[in-house]
Amino acid sequence: MTASALQLRHRRGRAIGYLACALSGCCWGTGFFFGKIAFTRLSVGHYVLYRFLFACLGLLPILEKPQFTRREWNLILIGALLGIPLQFMVQFEGLKLTTVSHAALMVGTMPVILAAGATLFAHERLDAKGWLALLGATAGIALIVASSAHGGLHGGNLWGDLLVVLSLLIALGWVLLNQRLILRGRSPLSVTCWTLLTGTAMLLPWVLLEDGLPPVRGLGWTVWGAVAASGLVCTAAATLFWNWGIHRVPASRAGVFLNIEPALGSILGVLVLGDRLGPGAWVGGALIITAAVILTTTGKAEPVHQLSS
Question: For 69-101, how does the pLDDT look when each residue is reduced to its tens digit (9 = 90+)?
């Protein structure tokens, strides 16, 4: 294969990787919305448990036989603990206290957390233009937050917002551990499936001891639909897209697509929940889109092949 053909193949792989990350952000962006619907009949623990049971059910048809070494199983188990019981129980406890829009907007801090973590622990580097783009995306989130605050967004809770941010710090460990496994040559599909399965196995006794058996009767089709969508779309599909995407692009650059989640959450808040967004929110959205274009079309940052121990 010629050098030009290899370069074209590399560019196509990058483009598909960015698309996968964008789809992941869209799937995650609906999670808080479906969670609020489920909370009308379910506790946080029961909702999270049902969410991951549906996610595991969706992944069973494509489950691969595990071929992990003992060291890799340790990484899987640590990532599963961080990424499922800890992250989601903390995050949705925060959502229960605050609003969908507030929780979604707090997720805007994740790209900064991810870029900082990738720089500190994964030896990834962003050029000056990349950092400016990331700062622009962060400024866009800040404008959305400020616009929502002045536009009549009610019901936010400081502790709820802080719990959501704490869950994002926990999620950083999950993202970097997943990336480490994938860059060691393990398939994104296998890493995703076995992380979710083992994490759900950890979640089950936690929820049963805390909340008891989850209810089955009386939930209604709306709640069941929200739970199923949370598991199949917001968890299984989103995680598959994300792990597949970061196999082809640096985590620090992929992180900008996490801004889709707060943007989409805000849109759902406006269209469905009646939140009002002022001009600042529109400017913030434009900044996020501009940052995504800059990060995906410029710069020379490359993915690392091994994370630090």
Answer: 888 899 899 989 998 999 999 989 888 887 777
Distance CA 301, CA 123 (A): 10
Tokens standing for 179?
A: 């990336």
pLDDT in tens, 126-169: 677 767 777 777 787 677 656 555 544 444 566 777 788 788 88
CA-CA distance, 209 to 111, in Å (whole number)?
34
